[in-house]
Design brief:
By secondary structure, this protein is mainly α. The protein has helices spanning 3-10, 14-22, 41-55, 60-70, 78-109, 122-134; strands spanning 30-31, 37-38. Strands 1-2 form a two-stranded antiparallel ribbon. A hairpin with a 5-residue loop joins strand 1 (30-31) and strand 2 (37-38). The longest helix is centred in the last third of the chain and has 32 residues, at 78-109. This is Cd(II)/Pb(II)-responsive transcriptional regulator. It comes from Denitromonas iodatirespirans. Residues 1-69 form the HTH merR-type domain. One of its GO terms (molecular function) is DNA binding.
Length: 135
């Protein structure tokens, strides 16, 4: 299949396919005599793998490492476990940050519990008060 067909089949932009190929995440495509790149099922599988990893918020460097490990099926999977453990730690830190943000927003929301004139809005007054202390 040509690049546009691969991109459509995998739900990505053509530019994404080109980028991943340039980054070495996708194997080079076969070139036809007239210069078109032809991609096979292995390219679609690899692209699906990359998309799944990206959906797990893995950076390209980590995806590259996973691909390298996967290309050596007899190797120990300790590196894979460590990589996922690191990713879990990052996600847990982001969850903590999001929970702190939620608490701040809940506290801010509690400043204004009814319909009031804007000048009496506890939320805006709190935001403006904090803004004044930053100077």
């Amino acid at each position: 299949m040509r690049i546009g067909e691969l991109a459509r089949a995998c739900g990505v932009d053509v530019e994404t396919v080109r980028y991943y190929e340039k980054q070495g995440l996708l194997p080079a495509a076969h070139r036809t005599p007239n210069g078109y790149r032809l991609f096979g099922p292995q390219h679609a599988e690899r692209l699906a793998f990359i998309r799944h990893c990206r959906a797990l918020d893995m950076p390209l460097a980590e995806i590259r490492h996973l691909i390298e490990v996967a290309d050596h099926p007899d190797a120990d999977c300790g590196d894979v476990n460590a990589l996922i453990d690191t990713q879990l730690d990052k996600v847990r830190e982001r969850i903590k940050a999001m929970q702190a943000l939620e608490h701040q927003l809940v506290a801010l929301r509690s400043r204004c519990d009814s319909q009031r004139a804007v000048e009496a809005c506890g939320i805006l007054n709190e935001l403006m008060a904090v803004s004044r202390t930053v100077r």
